[in-house]
Write a sequence for this structure.
């Protein structure tokens, strides 16, 4: 539905370009604006990272630690699963 509305709006602007240049340029300029990028991150030692690759590395370390952190309930379920799996073979 949103795609159809966007296409209809673009078609309307294209049809009325000779009479309403202001609407055309307003729409064009709205599509040219860039969105803000991820800002600098603070490393473990307190230094700021300015490079995109450094930011990616820091985020990778952070999410790896968070997602791989074992909780007691999760460890117990994993242990039960492995014991059941080995007992079947």
């Amino acid at each position: 539905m949103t795609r159809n509305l966007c296409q209809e709006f673009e078609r309307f602007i294209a049809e009325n370009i000779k009479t309403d240049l202001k609407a055309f340029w307003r729409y064009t300029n709205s599509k040219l604006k860039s969105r803000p990028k991820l800002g600098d991150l603070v490393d473990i030692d307190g230094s700021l990272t300015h490079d995109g690759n450094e930011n990616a590395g820091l985020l990778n370390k952070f999410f790896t630690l968070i997602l791989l952190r074992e909780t007691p309930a999760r460890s117990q379920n994993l242990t039960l699963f492995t014991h059941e799996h080995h007992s079947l073979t």
